[in-house]
Specification:
Blueprint lengths: L1 H16 L4 H12 L6 H12 L19 H10 L5 H8 L3 H10 L2 E5 L1 E3 L5 H20 L12 E4 L7 E5 L6 E3 L7 E4 L6
Parallel strand pairs: 2-5
Antiparallel strand pairs: 1-4, 3-6
Helix pairs in contact: 1-2, 1-3, 2-3, 5-6
């Protein structure tokens, strides 16, 4: 595309030097290279530049974000954190969101909801629960404190509802699997203690 634009500018400059108008040049270029080769407005812009003695035939580098993207770097970012958003990737790589989105689509990535699997306790947590139960049982044998407990108006307040997240997965690949949060996670409750 860059080479073709330079070629068209050389031809336009030739016609400019012959004293032709931009509209005539546009017609001649379209007759030879096809209707969609160039717009008349582009020819007018070039003729204006030629009149102001600007004879550069190459495109001047534009300001703005680079569109060069290392796809290996993009893959590494996603493999490191499957839950990263397009906006965060764009900020890391200093590229536009649409550029990142297009490259992810070309690489076959799409956002899928994570699959929750049942919460499983690790061995350390199981041992800790057994120890706490055993300690409470022994304490109750020495000082029967459980007889002094009366519960009433038990109130559970959920203040952290965990939602499933979306993670990047290739097409045909299953979604990420994450442990389902414990059903009693981060709840507060009130127990009224009454001494007998």
């Amino acid at each position: 595309m860059q080479k073709q634009n330079e070629h068209f500018r050389h031809i336009a400059f030739y016609y400019f030097k012959k004293g032709k108008r931009a509209a005539d040049t546009h017609r001649k270029l379209c007759r030879v290279y096809g209707v969609d080769a160039i717009t008349e407005r582009t020819c007018q812009i070039w003729f204006t530049k030629f009149r102001s003695e600007n004879f550069l035939f190459q495109d001047v580098p534009r300001s703005g974000r680079s569109v060069q993207l290392n796809e290996d770097q993009l893959k590494a970012i996603i493999e490191n954190d499957r839950h990263i958003t397009v906006r965060e990737i764009a900020k890391k790589l200093n590229l536009s969101k649409t550029t990142i989105d297009d490259h992810l689509r070309n690489l076959g990535y799409s956002k899928k909801l994570d699959i929750w699997v049942p919460h499983k306790l690790v061995e350390n947590q199981l041992i800790q629960r057994i120890n706490i139960c055993d300690m409470l049982f022994k304490r109750n044998q020495i000082d029967p404190f459980l007889k002094n407990l009366i519960t009433g108006d038990e109130k559970w307040i959920v203040y952290n509802n965990v939602n499933r997240k979306r993670s990047w997965s290739k097409s045909g690949e299953t979604s990420q699997r994450i442990s389902k949060p414990d059903i009693h996670q981060k709840k507060s409750y009130a127990i009224h203690m009454v001494g007998l």
